[in-house]
Structure formats: C-alpha cells, structure tokens
Amino acid sequence: MSPIRAPRPVRSGRAFTRPKRSDAHRVGSPAVREATGRTPAAGPAAASGPAAASGPALPRAPWPDLAPLVDGTPPGRLPHKQARLWSLVLRARRVPHRVRNLPGGYTIQTPQRFARQAVEEILLYHKENLTPHPDIPLTDPQERVRPTVAAMLALCAFYSLTQRPWPGLGSYPQYWHSVGVADASAMLDGQLWRAATALTLHADAAHLASNVVIGGAFLILLARRAGSGTAWLLAVLAGTLGNLLNALAHLAMNGGHLSVGFSTAVFGAAGALAGLKAASGDGDFRPGAMVGRNMGRGWLPPVAAGLALVASLGTAGDNTDIGAHVFGLLAGLGLGGLAGRMALRLGRPDEWAHGRCNDAYGVAAALIPALAWAWGWLAR
C-alpha cells in the first residue's frame, strides 16, 4: 500500500486578477491624445473606414507616350521591332517604362518625371549606334517597274526599226549607224550627238538582249530609291557622259574608236546606285536625316561593288568596250553622289514637287536621245 499524503494548506488572501483597461486609457483614444498631445500616424488603418472611403482619391500622374517626343510618330503606332529596341535601351539605363500592344501598333510609356531622361537616352542611342545599312523606304512596285519595262520595249522596237531597210521611208541600217555610232574623232570635231545616239544602237540581237535584261534589273533597283524618271535620267546622262570620256581617252592614246550599245548607260545606272549609297551612308533621304551624322561613311562598299561588277560583266567578250563601261560607271558614281546629296536636303527625288519633278525627269530622259537623233539627221 502506498502512503496517504496530507493535503496542502490553502494560502489565505485574495486571488490576483489583471485589471481591465478602459477605453479612456487605450492608445489613440481621445483621452490619451488630449493628455499627450499626440495624433495617430497615418497608415492603412487610418485610411480605412467610412470617412476615408468617402474622401476624394488623389489623381494618378500621367504616363506620356515616348514616340511623339522622340521622332514624331503618332501615339500607339510604333512597329514591334522599334518598340523592342527602345525598351531594351531603357532597361539598360534603368529607366522605368511599360510597353503596351495596341490595335494600331505598340506604345512605350514612362512616368512623367522620367520622360525627359527616356527621350534623351533613346536619341543618344540612335546617334551613337548608326548602321550603314538600315531599311531604305521604297517606292510603289508598279511605279518602278512599268516605266522601265515600257522603255526597254521601246529600245527593242527601235532596234527592229534600225536593223531593217524601209525603202518607202528612206530608212536603211547603214544610214542609222553612220549618223549615230559613237565615233571618237567625229565627236571631238563637234558631232556631240553621237554620245547619246550610240546608246540606242546595238550590234546584234544578243547584244540588245543582254543590255535589256541586265539594264532593266539595275534601272528597277535604281528606281526603287530615286523614282523611275530620276533613274532613267541618271542612266542616260551617265551613258552620254561615259561615251564622251571614252572618246577623249582613246584620242589621248592616238587611236580612233567606234562603239554602240546601251551598256554604257547600264553601268551608269549601277554607278548611280553606288553613288546614292555613298552620298547618304544609310540611304535615308528624309530631309535633315543626316544632320549630325558622318555623311558618306558607307562609300567604300558600293564603290567596290561597282568595280567588281565591271570586272565580272564588263570585260567579257572580244568586242566588249571596257573603257565605255568603266567611264559609264564613274559618271554614274558622280551623278548618283550629287543626286544623293540633293536628296538629303530636299527629300526623295520622286517626291520633289509632289512627284512632278520625277515625271519631268522621265520626259527629259526620253528627249535626250530623241533630240540627239534629230540633231544628227539635220546636221547630216
């Protein structure tokens, strides 16, 4: 059996209980605030309640669109590629922003107090990261193809006219060649029309076909950047000047020279392409686009491409006039560079005077050989 323990004696006195605080002693109560002179700190609890809910809400600061501030693009019209680029620039510079995809394009927005910094960072990036080969705005496909195709068909029709005898019209092939061939001695004696008329004559059908195919390709490319009228005027002027320079070069070597063919103008068109690229650097012909840029920074690649073209296409065949090809290319380089410099100040050539200049240039390109033939026949 286990022993029985005696019960503990109970202490006498009252049990201890914690006094309850009244509402008058609670922190934040009116009595405490009145005694201490303190007011409760504002916080989430202070903002809750019917009184806070009924008060006016503070207006949120606007987030402006950066596109109109940077380059004048309408709000919400940024291309996806440009929006990604700008966002990358702003993230690298730790500028807060947001990108929104809208039905008409993209928008990049930033808080008002960061808007100026964001615009400066984007402009600085474009100034320091120029590429010599950005996208070049092109003209309408129909505008650049149809006039060139029509002109090449006219060149083929003229070949048919000059290669067949027409007794009723008094037209014989030998007459056309005697008047229009590029004779170096005759040209320096004053018969300057031959520099232009020789562009429209060809030795045979294969000679014509090669010039039509290759020349049409180059003229279409040139028309995409300068307009069809401007492209043809540059090609005809470069071909005419190339024939003159070729005649001077052959006479300087004490030798006569005869040549025909549109190939001098074809290489003139190739040179004009290189000249446009060399003058603008990046091919952007918007007015003022080259302000603060290093103009002509991309001249070497297009010039080298033109010389490589002469080496590959302009030296084949026993009857190839290498001098005419080289001088046509050099003349095109000069004329294209001049046109490019003018375009940097005035805008795209096919947009001068709302396109009327481009039409006038096309008419001038057709009149140069036509008037040259008229001069030759009258002087005969």
UniProtKB/TrEMBL annotation:
An example Gene Ontology CC term for this record: membrane
Membrane topology: Multi-pass membrane protein
Region (Disordered) residue spans: 1-75
Predominant location category: membrane
SUPFAM superfamilies for the chain: Rhomboid-like (SSF144091)
One Pfam family cited in the UniProt record for this chain: Rhomboid
Peptidase S54 rhomboid domain boundaries: 190-338
Membrane-spanning segments: 230-252, 258-279, 299-316, 322-339, 360-378
Keywords from the UniProt entry: Membrane, Transmembrane, Transmembrane helix
GO molecular function: serine-type endopeptidase activity
Record's keyword annotation contains Ribosomal protein: no
Compartments where found: Membrane
Low complexity biased stretches: 37-60
Protein's name according to its UniProt entry: Rhomboid family protein
